């Protein structure tokens, strides 16, 4: 098979290829950021379907966010072609919805059951206490947790159903496995036999959802749960230039969960910039530094570039706005950055995590009794429902709801579950030529030529909540978040911190993040200081 011409596996290095070509059985791919885990996963699935004759309908690929699922589906379509339509690419929640829709009668729901948003759940809880679930289900509604819990209960109580789903999807893969929580883990155990074809991919050092119940322990015990699993480690990083990679590895080393964490730089980078470290007086100065540096990297011409879109930079970089990302720990940090970028005429897009149903008017418009009672397509019903509410709110609600309403045709149930599932106002478009503003959590899995990680301050990264005792495990998770952020960068990485910052309405002094001191000064340089200084001797500590 190795001698065959133009196999899909040719685009992989030998370790990746070995992983992608594992014939069957449980497979664990454990590897650091930028080593091509996601790439290996897509190639493995494509190889199974186009070169090994596995029907696409037998493959299930699971990820955590809608964004990641959409990206996976897109990459698969590029590799597999039209057959990709028969693959099931899902988030845990959308998989749960699918199983529940198929098995609705067994849990006393109709096939068109709705997914209640948090406010409805809260109202029922207030009214009925912890019996509220009955009320919810009686109204043909389920809540967000039900989407995974109910399929788990269903399957756990019926072996024939387990057999049904195992026969349906004999090939299951999960990206970012380090972030599964207990219910998701139980669902996977039910869907996959201990000797089944489950491919789990992940990096324990990028486990960042512990606060939401994820447990990296499930990843670490994969080989006990699935005895005889093949374990493949990937060690070449194709993403980041060497100083960035070295600095990131140094940053994670004190608490790494991976025994032999080594990452060899393997990208095709023409130059290797040091990691830029910037000390600012306050968050405005920090934000100006970001705007100024973007402008400089674009050749100081961002003002003129707005018409043409792409900027040649100094002729060597060829960067454009969408090559830049600004990452931060909390969304409230975005404001200063947005102001500075606006002043500099730099176009940007912020990935928002606000819940759609928190937006003025949306809840009023989407109130299920309203919509179900109305007639016509979902678009028509949404328009009718918007009639009755305050003008400005109606306008914003319509703007937010129309893309989803249009996709749903006549299916109100689909609209309502879409609303609950896609609960975030997420207009972030990876193709738009704009600088991306993202939280560190939202940056997982992504990569950008230039990354600014702002607010590297003690108390912010690691985050410390007032009045809370520092929990060492929580601090370790913050360090992993820092590692995730650093490893998004391909060519340039800037770590900045401000000596003072307004937090919760008060100006507070801040010390640099202790994580910075894990990074050797030999891979960093101080830049963008207000008062230009002579270059420091390499060995002097920066912090
Ligand atoms: P993360 O842990 O951040 O999710 P990952 O391990 O999933 O990272 P990918 O996103 O799959 O990594 O790959 C990182 C980058 O390296 C991508 O741009 C990918 O195309 C590139 N890459 C991976 N493997 C190779 C290869 N064998 N040859 C060339 N480029 C590669
Ligand atoms: Mg990945």
From TrEMBL:
Catalytic activity: Couples ATP hydrolysis with the unwinding of duplex DNA by translocating in the 3'-5' direction; ATP + H2O = ADP + phosphate + H(+)
Part of the whole protein covered: 474 to 1016 of 1016
Record domain UvrD-like helicase ATP-binding: where: 10-241
Enzyme Commission code: 5.6.2.4
Gene Ontology cellular-component terms listed: cytosol; DNA helicase complex
Protein name: DNA 3'-5' helicase
Top-level taxon of the source organism: Bacteria
Keyword Methyltransferase found: no
Binding residue positions for ATP: 31-38
Record domain UvrD-like helicase C-terminal: where: 242-543
GO MF annotations in UniProt: 3'-5' DNA helicase activity; ATP binding; DNA binding; hydrolase activity
Keywords, in A-Z order: ATP-binding, Helicase, Hydrolase, Isomerase, Nucleotide-binding
Example GO BP: recombinational repair
Top class in the EC scheme: isomerase
């Amino acid at each position: 098979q190795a001698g065959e011409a133009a196999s899909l596996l040719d685009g992989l290095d030998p370790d990746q290829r070995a992983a992608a070509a594992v014939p069957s059985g449980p497979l664990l791919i454990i590897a650091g950021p930028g080593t091509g885990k996601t790439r290996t996963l897509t190639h493995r699935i494509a190889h199974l379907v186009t070169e090994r004759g596995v029907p696409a309908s037998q493959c299930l690929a699971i990820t955590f966010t809608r964004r990641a699922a959409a990206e996976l589906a897109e990459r698969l379509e590029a590799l597999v072609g039209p057959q990709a339509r028969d693959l099931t690419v899902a988030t845990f929640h959308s998989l749960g919805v699918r199983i529940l829709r198929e098995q609705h009668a067994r849990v006393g729901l109709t096939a068109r059951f709705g997914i209640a948003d948090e406010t409805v759940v809260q109202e029922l809880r207030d009214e009925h206490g912890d019996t509220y679930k009955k009320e919810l289900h009686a109204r043909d509604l389920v809540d967000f947790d039900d989407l995974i819990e109910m399929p788990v209960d269903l399957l756990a109580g019926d072996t024939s159903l387990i057999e049904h789903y195992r026969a349906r999807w004999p090939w299951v893969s999960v990206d970012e496995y380090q972030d599964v929580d207990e219910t998701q883990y139980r669902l996977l155990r039910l869907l996959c036999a201990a000797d089944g074809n489950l491919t789990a991919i992940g990096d324990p050092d990028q486990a960042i959802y512990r606060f939401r119940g994820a447990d990296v322990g499930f990843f670490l015990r994969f080989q006990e749960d699935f005895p005889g699993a093949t374990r493949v480690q990937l060690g070449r990083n194709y993403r980041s230039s060497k100083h960035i990679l070295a600095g990131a590895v140094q940053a994670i080393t004190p608490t790494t969960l991976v025994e032999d964490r080594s990452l060899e730089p393997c990208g095709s980078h023409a130059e290797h910039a040091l990691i830029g470290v910037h000390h600012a007086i306050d968050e405005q100065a920090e934000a100006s530094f970001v705007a100024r540096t973007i402008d400089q990297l674009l050749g100081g011409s961002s003002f003129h570039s707005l018409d043409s879109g792409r900027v040649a930079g100094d002729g060597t970089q060829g960067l454009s706005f969408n090559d830049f990302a600004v990452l931060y720990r909390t969304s409230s940090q975005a404001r200063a950055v947005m102001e500075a970028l606006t002043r500099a005429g730099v176009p940007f897009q912020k990935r928002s995590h606000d819940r759609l149903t928190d937006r003025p008017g949306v809840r009023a418009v989407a109130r299920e009794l309203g919509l179900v009672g109305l007639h016509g397509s979902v678009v028509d019903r949404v328009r009718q429902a918007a009639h009755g509410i305050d003008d400005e709110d109606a306008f914003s609600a319509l703007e937010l709801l129309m893309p989803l309403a249009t996709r749903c045709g006549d299916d109100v149930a689909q609209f309502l579950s879409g609303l609950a599932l896609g609960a975030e106002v997420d207009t972030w478009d990876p193709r738009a030529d704009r600088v991306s503003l993202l939280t560190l959590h939202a940056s997982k899995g992504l990569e950008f030529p230039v990354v600014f990680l702002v607010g590297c301050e003690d108390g912010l990264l690691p985050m410390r909540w007032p009045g809370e005792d520092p929990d060492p495990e929580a601090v370790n998770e913050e360090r992993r978040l820092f590692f995730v952020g650093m490893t998004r960068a391909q060519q340039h990485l800037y770590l900045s911190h401000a000596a003072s910052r307004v937090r919760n309405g008060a100006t507070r002094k801040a010390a640099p993040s202790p994580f910075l001191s894990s990074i050797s000064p030999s891979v960093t340089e101080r830049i963008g200081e207000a008062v230009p200084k002579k270059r420091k001797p390499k060995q002097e500590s920066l912090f």
